[in-house]
Specification:
single chain; 266 residues; 6 helices; 73% helix
Length: 266
């Protein structure tokens, strides 16, 4: 009888031990899940706070400044919608497009030095200081091209300053009134900069909200990167289609205006 009770006691002890081990394993697993959620949320908070949030604000500010400049001093504001504005002629029909005058170029130099350069430099400082927070395994091409553009604008700014000093000293500048000389020194501004920054900010905000309000499994960094690529393509498609639509409407409007005849009211 003692042997039986001894075996039962051993079995009970073993069962309790196994149960304790199972509970311990589940506790460790749950803690690992919680730690992962916390780590992912902390990184997303950092990405929004230190990188993409700042870039979003700076980009929006810069775009509003640019549109304000175009409205006051550009030619395209009379031709295209506000989202599709350029100051320097470009494209296949560049020779048929209105060119900036000497007065417009003077205004450009003022806005460039006072606003545009400072905003772009701030954006580049944010990127350099927080490169480790960039989403994905490598530096996005759009940010590399943006850095190249900003570097080229530094050279342009120095050149323009030197030419203005020459004119102040009484010498005539050969490039200040020639917009083509400006373009020669510029690396192209990557047109998808806004799409990329906007997509990153929106996707990260969405994931942040999801982690704060649900217990769903956090997305990995690569899953977030794929969502950003999809969002970026969606934004580009929307604006490209809207651009075609707006240009078509304006072309139709111009054709109607040119063919209309004047009928005096009696």
């Amino acid at each position: 009888m003692d042997n039986i009770w001894g075996n039962i006691a051993e079995i009970a002890t073993a069962g309790a031990t196994i149960a304790a081990v199972v509970v311990a394993i589940r506790t460790i697993q749950a803690k690992r899940v919680d730690d992962r959620r916390t780590d992912r949320l902390n990184r997303i908070n950092q990405q929004l706070n230190q990188l993409y949030g700042k870039l979003s604000i700076l980009y929006e500010t810069g775009m509003r400044d640019w549109c304000s400049f175009i409205e006051q001093h550009g030619n395209d504001s009379k031709l295209f919608a506000r989202e599709f504005v350029d100051f320097f002629p470009s494209g296949e029909n560049v020779d048929n497009l209105p060119s900036p005058t000497a007065e417009q170029l003077k205004a450009y130099r003022k806005w460039l030095k006072t606003l545009f350069t400072k905003t772009n430099e701030k954006m580049l400082e944010v990127i350099y200081a927080n490169a480790d927070l960039v989403i994905g395994k490598s530096m996005p091409q759009v940010l590399i091209l943006f850095a190249q553009h900003v570097s080229s604008m530094r050279l342009l700014q120095v050149t323009l300053d030197e030419e203005e000093h020459k004119e102040e000293a009484g010498s005539k500048s050969a490039i200040l009134d020639d917009w083509r000389e400006y373009v020669k020194l510029m690396a192209p501004y990557p047109g998808d900069t806004g799409f990329y920054i906007g997509a990153c900010f929106e996707v990260l905000k969405e994931e942040q909200e999801r982690l704060l309000s649900t217990y769903e499994t956090p997305l990995t960094e690569m899953e977030i990167a794929r969502k950003i690529e999809d969002a970026q393509r969606g934004k580009a498609k929307f604006w490209n289609e809207r651009g075609v639509e707006i240009r078509a409407k304006r072309a139709t409007s111009s054709a109607i205006s040119s063919n209309a005849t004047f009928e005096p009211k009696l």
